[in-house]
Amino acid sequence: MKVKLFTRFPRLKEVTGIVLLLAAVGFLFALASYDPTDSSWNNATWRTPAHNKIGSVGSHFADFLFQTIGLTAWVVPFLTAWLGLRWMRAKSLRSPIIRLLGYCLMSASISGALDLMHPLTPYDGAFAVGGVAGFLVASSMIRILNVTGTAILLTCLFILSIYLVSTFSIAAIGEAVEQWLAKQLSKVWKRKPKPQMDPADEQMQGEGTEAPGLLAQAMASRKLKGKAAAAAAGAVALSPAGLNADVAQMEGAGLDTEIPQYVNGHGEVYSNGHTNGYANGSTGNFRNGGAAVEDAPPWEPDIPIRSLEDDLSPAVVPAPPLPKPAVKAKEEPPRRTSFRVPPTNLLNIVPEREGYDSAELKDVASRIKSKLEEFNVLGNVVQINPGPVVTTFEFKPDAGVKIAKITTLSEDLCLGLQAESILIERIPGKPTMGIEVPNSRREMISLRQILESDEFIESASRLTIALGKDISGRIRISELEKMPHLLIAGSTGSGKSVMLNALIMSVIYKSTPDEVRMIMVDPKRVELGIYDGIPHLLTPVITEPKKAVNALRNAVLEMERRLKLLASYGVRNIDQFNKKIRLANDKPMSLFDENKPKDPVEEERPLPYILIVIDELADLMMLERAGVEESVIRLAQMARAVGMHLVLATQRPSVDVITGLIKANFPARISFRVATRVESRIVLDVMGAEHLLGKGDMLFLPPGTSRLLRVHGAFVTETEITDVVDFWRKQGSPDYDQSYLIAPPSDDDNDEADEADGEEDPLYRDAVRVVCEMGKASTSILQRRLRLGYGRAARILDNMQREGIIGPPDGSRPRDVLRRPGWMDAPDNDDD
């Protein structure tokens, strides 16, 4: 009990470790300078001083060790130094009594083996080579087992002592050798000549730029590359034999790392992970949910996995294969266009990922358990789920341990594991807590990986966006049609701009300009300008806030026009309308129909989707708050049916930017790393985004659910974007609609047109009071104080000038007020 209390204090551990290190140095000098003629326990002499470097104390100590355990005494300084280092670095000593027993057993076995091999030492026969202990052990065993049996038993005792004092595992060494051999064999296998492609495949690869050939192109490239080695989506393939060895060596520690393995329909073995979810609180409850997010099949692990029957320990219970959610197939309309979608070879090739270090993962699991035990949180790590950026350790607490007590220890675990950030959350459907620890080596998730995946290729939506990979390594995509609008927030450098680029690249890889048109608003002028000139653009990239407001207002008018058009044809959404138009255009003409008047349906053309991307909402809200907020809310409420979708991004997630009405109409949201918990709650309604790692690490809130999904975003470089943009520019110039940049007729102007000449504006007298009190008059003052439009405010000023209340305009300066304050309330005022 005293040992446990002592090792609980880090400062005492450090002091003890330093003392043990210094003692180890002294032991080494004492043994190295041992002289049998010095005064010791077995030799009495009056000679002073002693030849030993540590003096009389050193000579007595060295003589005692040599006489007791013989040449095994040389192990004592190194064991003492190792123990000091462990203690000084605050490593938890799980059972000091067992370790002490292991040290004694190791000394006895080595001493007995030395006595069995050689009778004397180099010190002129001053003591037996194995010491008294070696002589007693060897002689007593030889009487019973003879020399051969004694050697075998001493070897077994030595191996057992190693298991008691260290984390040595013969099974782990065997596993490492096996993995090394498997890796070498795989390299030899890769050097085999590639199979010859048939002419059809070669032609498919050469003509991979055709619009309908993206799937064929990706399949052809896969034939050349073979199966891509993807990282394990679930638990790492740690050897169960190594785990059993760890359990045997760490008695009382209770570390039980379960790695479930499953067999798919093709007879291939893969490992399963879990999906997370964030609940309300400092950590949440994430889980994969929402209609807009589609699950991908698990990765095939790089680490070779043997059969279930041979490898799984009895503690591992095989589970059924991970079910793949049924996705309702959407009929993809045929493309009638001369445009070609770009090939994926314009994007960078994904580098081969490295395998996981099983020993490192098990060491982290052990440290997590030890750190939690320091706070009286008892339990076991039952499963390890490595991912591309973070590894999830499933911790099963003992009975009586509260979840809230575990979730509050995230910062303490960060300190103990020397991690940047750790998230702790409950895993739905399991009695475990997920502890997400950043990997020492992060995997770079490129956009090409997502675009060449089956999930992206098989998606029929023209607005499919590539999100990235979740914490288990599954590819995540989403359809903007189902969201139907997306809000993105995150601090500077967290990956928000890269996410916008990946979103735009996904759309222009999936759709042609006849299918999707875009309006891009970039007040910062440096983010979206690279896309200027692609045929998808409905307007040039907008950088002026005034033009952005005009574009949003004209988008509202286009939405209203489309709604009336859909209502006139008796359809509910843009897909039904376009299908009806295509069927009418495909109807065969008869000779008797030449003189028949054409159906109005046949004169219409399919409507393209319109995607509006705003890179910095905060800048627009600061300059044109009323106009921007009103247009955004109207579009978010009504534009889904007519195929118009909004993507808003901001690096200032405050309540004056993301207002309640905006957030209520944007059910799908993405938050990258933010500065405070308050900002996380503004974006996601829960805390947790402040603990993200940055560089593309995000929390995604799918529509129709409150469960968050942690995703690591896909990365795309500026060079890749330039190559794809140049590919589109070569196919044609954009067909801009400049009317979107012109201010539409406002309601204020319509009210003014309806007013009869000489009729006074209802707010005219209030406007006169405002300018008299302020002593100056301008349209901006009336717009701010009375919330008027520009045309109405200018008309009121003209009326004031005609009545002699204010002077004429003087350039950009406000007009002079010719009446004194309170003039309107004076009794002699004729107008009162």
Automatic annotation (TrEMBL):
One of its GO terms (biological process) is cell division. Residues 317-342, 742-761, 802-832 are annotated as: Disordered. ATP binds at G490, S491, T492, G493, S494, G495, K496, S497. It is found in: Cell membrane. Keywords: ATP-binding, Cell cycle, Cell division, Cell membrane, Chromosome partition, DNA-binding, Membrane, Nucleotide-binding, Transmembrane, Transmembrane helix. It holds the Pfam family FtsK_alpha. Residues 746-761 have a biased composition (Acidic residues). It is a multi-pass membrane protein. GO terms for molecular function: ATP binding; DNA binding. The keyword Transmembrane helix applies. Residues 472-681 form the FtsK domain. InterPro entries: AAA+_ATPase, FtsK/SpoIIIE/SftA, FtsK_4TM, FtsK_alpha, FtsK_dom, Ftsk_gamma, P-loop_NTPase, WH-like_DNA-bd_sf. It comes from the Bacteria. SMART domains: AAA, Ftsk_gamma. Homohexamer. Forms a ring that surrounds DNA. This is DNA translocase FtsK. It comes from Paludibaculum fermentans. The lineage of its organism: Bacteria, Pseudomonadati, Acidobacteriota, Terriglobia, Bryobacterales.
